[in-house]
Amino acid sequence: MNQEIQKTAAAGSGTRPGSGIRDFTVLLSSTPRGARLARLLAVDTLRSWGLPQERASHVVAELAANAATHGRLPGRSFRLTLYVVGATLRVEVTDTRGDRLPAPQTPDAVAESGRGLLLVEALADRWGVTEERFPRKTVWAELSFTPPEPAPSRSGAVGG
After folding, report:
1. How many beta carbons lie within 10 A of that of residue 100, not counting itself?
2. Cα–Cα distances in Å, from 22 out to 33, 49, 56, 108, 139?
């Protein structure tokens, strides 16, 4: 990971004071490398938060790949945002092609692509698109999970 991405990721992650909301955001190049990095950063972030990452990693991979492929404009980045409220992880990928809204396809059986949003639909509890100030759009997905058990307290006397 280059230093610029590392600084941006470090500055854009954490827990909002007093809210209990965890969030992470980073700008990445609209390239296949940027899409791969989005998945790796998401897995690393979710792992550091103690949250399951398998379903989320697939969702991030698909949304980031779509942003890098279909939402790409030369010289423009896409933004990955993750945040957790309660027992829901929200994944957002924002690109600068608001004129190209995603729609699930029904590829034929031998097609090598075109199943990304079907996979997102299968893995996420909800997903959708938010049109923003032109030329941006955000494709989002929400995944529910079981919150991790709190660590046992070491204070107090041990019964005996």
Report:
1. 13
2. 26, 8, 15, 40, 19
Q: What is the pTM of this model?
A: 0.79
d(CA 66, CA 64): 5
* Beta-carbon contacts of residue 31 (< 8 Å; ≥ 6 apart): 68, 72
d(CA 108, CA 72): 25
Q: What is the pLDDT of residues 52-99, one digit of tens each?
A: 999 999 999 999 999 999 888 888 999 999 999 999 999 999 999 888
Which residues of 7-160 form beta strands (DSSP E)? 13-15, 22-29, 77-85, 88-95, 126-131, 137-144
Residue 3's pLDDT is 41
User: Side chain identity at 92, as an amino acid letter?
Assistant: E
pLDDT band, residue 24 (cuts 50/70/90)? very high
Q: What is the DSSP letter of 25?
A: E
Is the pLDDT confidence value at 135 over 90?
no
